[in-house]
Amino acid sequence: MAAEHHHHQTVYRITTFFNRKPGLTDEEFYNHWYNIHGRLCAPWVVKAGILGYKQFHTPPTLRSALRPPDRPSAPLAPTSLTSLPPSSILSPTGSGGAGGALAESMALQTYDGGVDFYVRSLSDFTNAFKDEYYLTVIKEDEDKFVDRTRVLNSTVGVERWVVRDGKVIVGVGNDGEEEES
Questions:
Q1: Residue 152 DSSP class
Q2: Measuring CA to CA, which residue among 137, 136, 120, 139 is closest to residue 48?
């Protein structure tokens, strides 16, 4: 019996982080982004051949929960890991215990949210932003809630699962890639 081979097509993830427009409360921002903007985006995403569009809401209450408990007013700014002695990386006391310096050295961003787009082709993604509907409807709506005076940071890559749904994936034969059914 011949082995069955699955052809895996790469799916790219493009992530963009941004902040809410000054003057909007957190509640106004998240409500508009999901309930109004999300509905405007849905048909455009499908038409453009984008496989997925996901919003990542990051309210200040959640971001502040990751501050060290002994320093609740500590700034949410990065600390260089290279300046820390190796024994202190995982330890609040430098003895190798979990928690401490690694968590404190995370560059906790202060963006109000992020959006993930999943595409098979990067050209599908770039072409979507040339579409008339994007330019006349979606971009105009973005101007109502996105702070365009601040930098929007983006990145592109591919996801590689290591653990998924509580199961180790890396090293079990599928190289962390999602298998087709």
A1: P
A2: 120
Q: How far is CA 128 from the centre of its chain?
A: 20
Model confidence pLDDT, tens digit, residues 37-52: 999 999 999 999 999 9
90-101 tens-digit pLDDT: 444 444 444 455
The DSSP annotation for the chain comes to -PPP-------EEEEEEE-BPTT--HHHHHHIIIIIIHHHHHHHHHHTT-SEEEEEE--HHHHHTTS-TT-TT-------GGGS-GGGTT-SSSSS-SSHHHHHHS-----SEEEEEEES-HHHHHHHTTSHHIIIIIHHHHHHHB-TTSPPEEEEE----SEETTEE-TTTTSTTPPPP-
Give the Cα separation of 16 and 146 in Å (integer): 12
Q: Specify the residue for token string 């330019």.
A: 135
